[in-house]
Amino acid sequence: MTSEKIQRVGVIGAGMMGAGIAEVCARAHVDVLVYEQTRELAAAGRARILRSLDRGVSSGKITEREREQAAWRLRFTSDLGDFADRQLVVEAVVEDEKVKAEIFAELDKIVTDPNAVLASNTSSIPIMKLGIATTRPERVIGMHFFNPVPVLPLVELVTTLKTSPAVSQRAEAFASEVLGKQVVRSSDRAGFIANALLVPYLLSAIRMVESGFATKEDIDKAMVLGCAHPMGPLALTDLVGLDTVKSIADSMYGEFKEPLYSAPPLLLRMVEAGLVGKKSGAGFYEYADNGRAAKK
Ligand code: NAI
User: Which residues are in the 3-hydroxyacyl-CoA dehydrogenase C-terminal domain (predicted)?
Assistant: First the structure.
């Protein structure tokens, strides 16, 4: 039955996004199995989710009991073979086409339910490139969540030339009815809707810093106070991760060959230096305790 309610979700990767996706699924009463490459990374992922649930309790968004129940619904594994019974898998590993395609090829061999939905949270990689790594491209779809996942209400649904309408309906029903997210639909072009608009803007801000046109503080202040953005482009680049912004720019440049999508040298040098933003403790700004308190 294609319309069978999704109750067993698998999330691949417990980085910033995978942890957030796992958390919102667990909070929505879904059984969640999270894959990480090693037990150490899995433990770090679990701790990340528990910290976020704690913040949910202290800000009054969830009760103590809801936190306990969500924590109970989360299991971790470092064996992808454990995903055999999953009805929906959301892949959220590093923005690298080769790594993601290998994971989809593996999943294809592992997931037994022929009606399972295989989704990627990629920010920019055309979904067809992942679909063709499987023998069931009609079951493959983009489900692009936004950071932080428990806070931002949007999911971009990306269907390919092969995605079956039943898969798209099932993914949309899960995102909206189970997770309570708003859904927008995009065609399968690198960057989809939001990043096709956002990333050139972030890259322009980095070019402004690089050329000495204005300070990072003034660039961010201009957009916060002048355009009512909740944060400026350089703080947002730090939040997304400079490595991820570079990878998104690369895949959009690869698709469109537009200079506005090409990663500026300052971004490349900062990624090479490990200054990848909040998650590493430093990017355009410095952060104490891996991003919990920024000092500017
Ligand atoms: P992250 O750096 O926090 O986490 C990366 C994850 O990939 C970790 O779980 C890591 O263990 C895993 N990983 C790295 N190399 C791997 C490999 N060779 N094999 C298997 N797993 C590997 O990154 P983040 O931000 O969570 O991004 C994950 C995905 O979500 C990317 O596709 C990214 O484009 C997308 N995304 C990111 C957003 C953001 O604001 N950072 C927003 C929306 C989507």
Answer: 191-287
